[in-house]
Structure formats: C-alpha cells, structure tokens
Design goal:
heterodimer, A: 186 residues, alpha/beta, Rossmann fold, seven-stranded parallel β-sheet, 6 helices, 7 strands, B: alpha/beta, 5 helices, globular
Amino acid sequence: MGLFSRKPKDSQREDGLGISRKYNLLPGKCYIVEESPPDLSFDAFVNILSTQDEACAKVTGLAISRQHPDMIKQKYGLEKTPLFWLATRAGQDVIAPTNLGILTHTIIKFIEENACGVVLLDGLEYLVSNNDFNKALRVVNQVNDHVAQSKCRIIIPVDPRAFDPKELALLERNAEKIIGTHAKRA
Amino acid sequence: MRQETNCLPISHPLSFQILSGTTINTPGVNPRLEIALKVLIVDDSEAFRNVMIELLVRVGFHDVAEAQDFDEGVAVFRKERPKISFVDMILPGKSGVELTAEMLKIDPKAVVIAMSSIVNKKMIRESLDSGAKDFLLKPTNEIALGAVLAMWSD
C-alpha cells in the first residue's frame, strides 16, 4: 500500500437481489444530486450494485461518505463494497478531509482497476469546510476527467443550501444534475 | 422533490429507460402512465403514506387506497382489488411477507412491491419468495417509484 493511497478491500460485486434497475445512470458520467439527506444517491448506488447491468457483467462500487461505514452497511446491506469514512479519526478505512490527495488517488485507482465501477462521493460540504471550495472542485474535476474516460459512474450528493449559486454552477458545469429531495422524510 | 419544470427533456438524467426501451420522464405527468389503475399502500406511518400518495399522483396514478396494517391491508385489498400494492415489510402484528402471501392468495395476478427503510437482503429474498415482484427502499423518490410503476403497470 502506497503512502498516498488507501487500499480498498478487493472490490467484489454485491449479490444480485432479483430486483429491477431503477436508475439509468450512464457510464462515463458524473451525477451531481442536489438533495439532503443523500437518500436518492445511496438508493441509486445500491440499486446499480444490486442489479444486472446490460453493459457490464460485473459492477463494483466504492463509497466515500461522512456517514460511518457500519451505519451504511447496516442500512443499505452492502457487504462487499469498500466503504471509506471521511473523518478526522485515524484508521484503515478513514480518509481525512484535508487529505485531498489520498482521496483523489483512492477514487482514481478504483476507476482504473474497475472497468464498470460506480463511485459515491458523499460529504462534499465537509471537504469544502475543511479546505476551500476551489480545492474541492479540483478534486471533483480531476475525478470527473477519469470517469469520462471510463465506463464508471460517479454520484455526488450535494446539499444546495451549503453552496452559493456560482459554486453550484461550477460543480454542475461538467456533470448531469439531478434534483432530489430536501429534508422530506417519512 | 423540487420541480424546476413540469416536464424534463428526454436527455435529462431524471428521465429513465425501462427494459422495453420506452423513455419516460419524471417528474411530470406522463400521459402514458395516466391510466385508471388502482394502487394500494400499506404502511403504518401515515406520513409516509401521504408522501407516497403525493408521489403517485405526480407520476399519474390518482386512484390510491391505503391501509396501516395486515388486517386493514387484507380488508382494503379484498374490497378495492388494486393492480399494484406497495407493502412495507415491517408492519405492526403480522409482517409484510405474510401480507404479500395473503394478497396473492386472494388475487394471484396482483403485483406486490415490497418496501423497507433498510436493505435487509434476507428480508428482501423472503418477500420475493413470497411473491413480491420488486423492492423499493424507503424513503423513495419519483425516479425509483416511476421506474417500478413503468415496469409493473402493464
């Protein structure tokens, strides 16, 4: 394991659940989902991982989130997908929000090693608050460049209340925008 | 779910394709989905039922019945004979798996969609084994709901 990377556990495919594909997120695209909490993003991520893909036999995932991996595993039933926690604590599956290099490298490495991967990057607001917007935007753009050259997809939930219109426009400049829910919970 | 426009262009990510290749836009009412098709929601949370009804109306399903538990679910199902039923897997008393089996005993052609707020693979398999056609994670959204309805409303 290199100094500047977090080695994801072997990316294995989640077991199919026998349910239907509900989200047609195209390979090679970056999706910015305006929502809070990130329910739609996680639902799409899990649905893509749990269903057959016409283009790829093996869809693998990588999730980086502010939510603790144990909570994600419990709620979304992800058993094989590598999950990283964006936090300031030390640990193997933890990425510090100030370590944008490690974060970028981890995602790019996953994209290069998984032809049909799907990446969920949740916690952009946390990255911005620990760095600044331009640095966080650079991460998104850099990752987006790699996604565009692959069959991977990346889903980035953002809370639009945490960004001003210019920042949102810059984030969505090279991405597909999805308007999700705002604090509407059952 | 915020709506910017009533109907989004085909290329928008909110549009999705079902297996037959038909493209349907959400949000926005699609005339192809505006059919007199009865839908039942069984969930013990009134707030969730209200959200579901709002979403169903938005995607073109106006004939919606609701129930809060197994007994009421069976009674409403017998009376209304819905084509599609959304059943929460965790209900007070008997479970959604038992309700699914009971509904399909009454009408084997009915379509039951299991719902839950967690992805419990064992529970999902049990519900599919008992005859449910699909699974929806709660809280749901127009994209997922629209996809399920497009898939199973024919």
